[in-house]
Amino acid sequence: MIRDTGQVVLNRFGLWQVVGDDALWRNTLLVPSYVAGVSTLLLVGQAIAIALHRRKNVSDDVEESSTRLRGHISALGGPIIFTFKLARLVACLALVVLSAVSMYKVSSHLDFSHTGLTHAALCATFIYASLLAILTVVTKPLWNSLITKHLIIVLLAPWAVYVYRDLWPLATYTLSPADSAEGWLIWTKVIVLTFAAIVVPLLMPRQYVPFDPLNPSLVPHPEQTTSWLSMVLFAYLTPFVFKAYKQPRLTLEDLPPMNDRDTLKNLISESYADLDPLQNKKKRHVLFGLVLRVYLFDHVKMAVMLILHVIGSFAAPIGINYLLKYLETGGENAIVRPWFWIAWLFFGPLISGMTFNLYFYIALRTIVRAQGVLTQLIFDHALRIRVQGDVKEDSLTQESPASEHPSPEGSSNARGGSSSDVDEETVASSTSFDAKADDQSSETPKQESKPNTANLAGRLNNLVTSDMSNVHGGQGFMLLMFYVPTQLTLSLIYLYSLLGWSVLPGVAAMALLSPLPGYVVKALSSMQTEKMKKSDARVQSVTESMNVIRMIKQFGWEDKMSALLDGRRQEELKFVRKLRLLELATMNISAFIPCATMIVTYGIYTLAMGRELTASRVFASVAVFGIVQEHFQGIFFLFPGLIQAKVSIDRINDFLSKTELLDQFSTGSSAATSTPSASSEICIRQAAFTWSSDTEDVNLPASSQRSFALRIEDELIFKRGRINLVVGQTGSGKTSLLMALLGEMHNIPLGPQSLVNLPRERGIAYHAQESWVLNETIRNNILFGAPYDEERYNAVIEQCALERDLGLFDAGDQTEVGEKGITLSGGQKARVTLARAVYSSADILLLDDVLAALDVHTSRWIVDKCFRGDLMRGRTVILVTHNVALATPISDFVVSLGSDGRILSQGSLSTALAKDQQLSAEAAKESEVIEKAEHEVDQETGDKTPKTTDGKLVTAEEVSEGHVSWSAMKLLLVNMAGKPGAIVFWGAFLVLGLVTRTMSNLDIWIIGLWARQYELQDPQDVSVAFYMSLYLVNMLSGMLVFSAAFLLFVFGSMRASRAIHRLLINSVFSATLRWLDRTPVSRIITRCSQDIQSIDSTLSQMLLNLFDVTFTIVVKFLAVILLSPIFLFPGLVLVAVGIWFGHIYMQAQLPVKRESSNARAPVLGHFGAAITGLVSIRAYGAQEMFRQELYRRTDRYTRVTREFWNLNRWIVIQTDVLAGMFCASLAAYLIYSGHMDASKTGFSINMAIGFSGMILLWVRMFNRVETEGNS
Predict the structure, then answer these.
(1) Region Disordered: which residues (predicted)?
(2) pTM for this one?
């Protein structure tokens, strides 16, 4: 005889078979005690480990310095968290009292041996939990977090036991609560335990834990402090959403503060060791470092969320199966009550949706962080590369329209720039290095040539725009690796439980057809690679055109350039069209394979197995087959994005691993440029220099080598504290000599005593041959990050002849110079750049042909006032110049270079002129020009720049408020129609779309009709072949109609994309010069690259999906109403509520999207400015200043983008709740009204699930179209 009542109930549950007194340890009431025992052992071990390795942190110091209650409460997270902890403590003490009362009552009426011991053990568990709860109130944060985790686990154990013993039986027909004998005590314990174990952990805010305890955020992001329930429901965003709903326009300051774990500084600190090629000695692929090193834990969490979502996705099929079985049998032999399965239809999909939502939250957070890290990594690596170096593989090489586009910087002569030696920054942006030697004279046997490479600035623009956008599509690889295989495996297992071994032939059919997608995917991959090359060529052409747009307008080349860019666009669209055709093939294949599997399975089940198709089996299996079909379609939707992401990641990796670096960063370099030396001499000894490390043999005659080589075969020592001149013929290597000193050229030792020494301890200042300025004010360009000293600053302004120029501007030195200094003449830019070098505290100044862009009078002023002024006294100046006559009075040491890149002489100017007759002739000619100019009046007045009041040149981008305007969408929709006209085009598309979705839903109706025949007639009389043929004909017809609709839409979207691109280019080319002055080139390039790409792919795809969902909604809603007219009103309410939610959401999402787009352009602008001035940045040692500026701009973009995706998660969870409520309500009505048979009920629930999900999906799709419509 079994004396323990609880044990008897356990027997009825079938969990444990208790036999006799020796089975006490199997009692479920003892499970909490086991958990408490394990917790005690682990807690003691963890406490010992912490005590041995404890480190002081900020929170500990705060606590020890303050013993007041207020300080303790603040250290634990504030009064709200402390109140929750106190409430949980009270609940634990109440559980101790209640369990003691239960133990007393049991021991008074029953034998204490079994039941009493179990209650005593449970009471001891609650006492242990109370002790832990007390510790969570009194201990420091270091211990508090650990103890809280143990407390939650200890409380969850008895709660789960009581749910199993006493709550689950309420949902069944055959079981009763195991502890009902306790009466009100058991239900009181369950309520109190639910509060302590579930409510408090879910609702209690979390304590803010800063990433860096020494630098915590002043105001943490709400996601770092909100409760877990608010986190999974994204309820913490609700106040912000309604604020945006009420506020006309949102700005960056209105957004929630930035999560300190998203700041670029903190991201870099935890990622560079695995990503930076200089720190990652194992040379791993950057993808490996991101996935398996830096964000491994995030990917583990994503995998867990996906698995939970897969399990939860079977809630609807299982619920439908049991509900239809209940209808088929009239409730006979039912174990679980129908209301449980109705609730299951609500909570199961909701929890599944929440886990899927969390997956996307983690995935998108990881992608945004990875994009920030990769952007900074590309920038940092660009600071190390040799400007003329290039990737030797062809992965980054694009078609260069060098023959059709002049170099952007090379065109600066039109504005007064120098036309002499090629500047290193001109090289950085030119499309061909060999196209610009000193004077491009054919008489010179060899010039200071550079290797021919692709456009560095354009290539980097592509990496941080198009490629970085493509990286976003790579987050789907987790779906491909974990989600899809797990879902398909569990689907087949569940189908086997429903349909038996008939599933196996279906799986075999699926396996036979599975190679088909592989061929398409392979073609997609190669086609995507080719398409990216064409996109790169177009973006590069646009970049080059925008950089020289003033010259284009001056020469009247707008039509020619527009035609050329349109040709590039046509080439790109050819590959876009091929990609879309391949996508159509993948969609048809992905739709056919699951349907073929279903036909084979049902055919075998009815014909070979001789079984009847019941409604419960049909609609449950149809739901699972629908999951399989969605996954097959999803796979092929994922592949394009994954392929694009893989190609882009490979391009980024190639840039990081195969780009030629400066010698100081190259591990395989044969020399050590700028060899550390204790000497303060500026010298070069026994060394040769080339623009590429490919050229190592410099002993061949110079004329026989492909690239220029500078050779210092003996020793060259510049005089310290003096002005040193570097002179020579055009193309002799004067600029290369400065580059060699700065370490920009490849150093090839010519002897054992080889040395290059440029002391940097007291600073280096550099004036590039082609002046480089930032898109800042004139003052900031001169200061260049140095502290402002008014006296020194005014002296610099006077000595650099800038006083009169500043008087031309109403805002004076607060005038913005614009991108590439567009508001300044070539002479003004040269003097601003010179002023930067003079104002700096650098001891050594390297000036490359600073007088070339100046007239004679200004040059004379610079020589007399600046070079002979007090600010230059005692500083070492190395001046490269062609103006030998002007520079003669200030020269203390002269180096003359020959046409072969060797030193002709060093010492006095007379020696240099004696050894170089051509140079002597040029000097004599310059003297005549100077003498003549002395009698002319200086006509320089500077650029006729429009007067401004605040100095602002670049205007903020115009931001539309509210929804995307109809005129913007009309631009797309009307251009899609083209010549056939809007009525014909859209009428045909609407008809084809509705017919497609009608035939798609007829598939399910045909299967249901087939199953119903077994109820209406003898199973032997049911014609299986007829219904299978009917299903197959309907499926194939639907594919044909869908293909027609898809092709119609795709060709229309391409037509619109071509027209919009042409309008965009023409509008830019026809813009006024003033508009171009006020609009950054980076903003124009963003419109022509990122936004055009969105129109090509994302926007068109989203618009197609929106139409498809709309057609599906109409068909499914009509089906539900035809079978259950009473749900017309609830369905309309669902539509209205969904639209209202979508409207509120869009009020927040649209301004955030616009802020995101606006925040991206400054990042690109900073990139462009830095890349064109790489040598200047490195010479000044200003790398860290530029890094910090990129940190700031990237953090701004990250902050906005994170909120954009978080808002997307907010609307998703709201729609999931509404969809679940609608489906559960319809199921309850159909089950308990009893007016419909199982087949019609199954069809109605199936349609309702699709409708409720689709109506809210429509809201989300509409919102996505609007957000993408900002492009």
Answers:
(1) 394-454, 925-952
(2) 0.76
